Amino acid sequence: MKDIKIIKGDITKMKANAIVNAANNSLLGGGGVDGAIHRAAGPRLLEECMTLHGCPTGEARITHGYNLPAKYVIHTVGPVYAGKTSDAHMLASCYYNSLALAKKVGLHSVIFSAISTGVYGYPAESAAKVAVDTIQKWQKENSDYKMDISLCAYDGRMYRLYEKMVA
Ligand code: AR6
């Protein structure tokens, strides 16, 4: 089994082929990690996002990273948590489709933000489990492809949850 790295801090400072943004359906920016990524990347990110005409929940789109240390930004749209079984499927799709897109364009390192766990209200522990399970499934199915996958926790609680899940 390949490993999953857990890192703590501000994803906008992190260097990788791509960081994964927790965006909304418009892809035109917002608060939380999305706002931080747009601020750090600069206005050309919004210009490119405008050409994409949004993104359905569970899917992923890619742009350049502009002023970010990361070369690309993968934008995925998590579910707004409503306590339904479809929430977990949608969240899993975010992780799976982001990795599929990263592979399709030939990337080899990706750092995920904790999709849906802020404004969208997904309980952190369940979200961490979906993240780890889905990444491990993808890794098994793509064992011939080198991809460094990291989960970025913004706070200590999320960091400890991720650590527990990958143990
Ligand atoms: N680096 C890493 N993680 C961060 C950062 C950062 N700089 N800032 C926040 N987080 P959220 P969502 C963590 O609310 O729940 C936006 O307005 C944060 O602690 O950013 O998917 C979008 O436009 C949390 O664990 O995303 C959408 O409208 C995680 O990032 C909506 O919020 C996700 O929290 C999406 O909501």
From TrEMBL:
Positions in coiled-coil regions: none
Gene3D superfamilies in UniProt: Leucine Aminopeptidase, subunit E, domain 1
CDD domains in UniProt: Macro_OAADPr_deacetylase
SUPFAM superfamilies the UniProt entry points to: Macro domain-like (SSF52949)
Domain Macro residue range list: 1-167
InterPro entries: Macro_dom, Macro_dom-like
Pfam hit, one: Macro
PANTHER family: GANGLIOSIDE INDUCED DIFFERENTIATION ASSOCIATED PROTEIN 2-RELATED, MACRO DOMAIN-CONTAINING PROTEIN
Protein name: O-acetyl-ADP-ribose deacetylase
Naturally occurring in which organism (per UniProt): Lactobacillus gallinarum
Taxonomic lineage from the root: Bacteria, Bacillati, Bacillota, Bacilli, Lactobacillales
